[in-house]
Amino acid sequence: GYRLNVDGKTCDDIHECSEGLSGCNQVCNNTIGSYYCTCFEGYYLSRNDRTCSDINECNTSNGGCNHTCTNSDGSYTCSCNDGYELNFDDHACDDLNECTLGTHLCEHTCVNDIGSYHCVCDTGYYLKGNGFNCSDTNECNSNNGGCNQTCINEIGSFHCECDIGYTLDDDGLGCTDINECDTDNGGCDHNCTDSIGSYNCSCDIGYILATDNHACNDINECNERTDICEQVCNNTIGSYLCECDIGYELDTNAINCSDINECDNENGGCDHNCYNEIGSFHCDCNIGYLLEDDGLGCKDQDECAVNIDGCDQNCHNSILVVIKYVIILLEATTVLVLKVIILVEMIVLAQMSMNVLQAMEDVNTTVIITL
Question: Is this model's pTM higher than 0.70 or not?
Fold first, then answer.
């Protein structure tokens, strides 16, 4: 460990390390009169005190690694399982949030798990066998989607619909009958009758339902039935009226017609004679008169003028009507005179009765005095 100096007296330390005399495999440490070998971190000194052998740190507490320890010459490394990432201390493993990092494969929603993740699908979808993709769920295939009537599937959802005449309940599932008659009478002109899931229109008597099944059209009863009235049928809106020809009047049944005897009413307007006929009448004049052009009045016939008098020499026309009226006047005067006579007779009788009563009173008075 020493070397004699040139003076032959003193000794100097031999620096084995610098002179390459140590034989150390890695690190040589000189000392006064000697030296010793050491190894780098990750190695240990062999029994010959010169060579260095690798330390397998993984054999001791897994090298302090949370997951995987991988030995290397003079060192080691820690690594983590899938779904984890190595902490800054190079030993611990922290959960890797694939959902946040965007490294997941989920089609819809990523849910992070410790060391992993799983996929879930939005409402109305189901997760396919690969665990990543989502397919539409046909809710209508299961209990008709809960719909009371019609279930309509949609991508990721569904909705219920009701048949015509029904309205969807607030729960979006049930159906309730619509009373169409409550709104604008169902559009019916006259009568609206509700039924389950529908309604129907009907018309009042005298009308018929139009082809649109809502409007009501008047029935022309006169065209439909020719026998509805005996004589004249007049259609009205929703009904009809029977009338009669001139010279007839409507019976109480409002259908049949009976002859009017015009002669019963002011002699039919005739001056002289009125003759009733079925549905009519005619006037006729007494001998010596001619019927006027109006068919009612009578005028004197001048027999002399038309040479039907039968006179040999002179013919004098006379107006018989004057004689007629004179006779009527005389008859009226006679009646009046008779009435006056009757009145006078009644007055005389009354006076006579009063005289008799007075005479009886005088006799009674005389008898009383005598007694």
Answer: no
Contact 341, 334 (CB under 8 A): no
Q: pLDDT tens for residues 10-68? A: 898 888 898 888 889 999 999 998 999 999 999 999 999 999 999 999 999 999 999 99
Q: Which residue has the tokens 């005088």?
A: 362
Which residue type occupies 146?
A: G
H or E segment to which residue 168 belongs? strand 166-168
- Residue 347 phi/psi, 5-degree rounding, is -70, -45
Q: Which two tokens stand for residue 271?
A: 């001056």
Centre a 10 Å sphere on the Cβ of residue 121 and count the other Cβ atoms it contains.
Answer: 19
One-letter amino acid of 360: M
d(CA 80, CA 8): 66
Instruction: Please state the separation of Cα 52 from the chain's center in Å.
Output: 98
Q: Which amino acid is at 167?
A: T
Q: Which of 193, 196, 188, 186 is nearest to 164 (CA)?
A: 196
Pull the structure tokens for residue 125: 């979808």
161 and 155 in contact (C-beta within 8 Å)?
A: no
Q: Which residues contact 83 (CB under 8 A, 6 or more apart)?
A: 95, 96, 98, 113, 114, 115, 116, 117
Phi and psi angles of residue 198, each rounded to the nearest 5 degrees, phi first = -160, -165
Helix (H), strand (E) counts: the chain: 3, 30
Q: What angle do CA 19, 22, 24 make, to 5 degrees?
A: 125
Of the candidates 170, 173, 146, the residue with the CA atom closest to the CA atom of residue 162: 173
- Spatial contact of 243 and 234, defined as CB atoms under 8 Å apart: yes
Q: What pLDDT is stored for residue 312 in this prediction?
A: 67
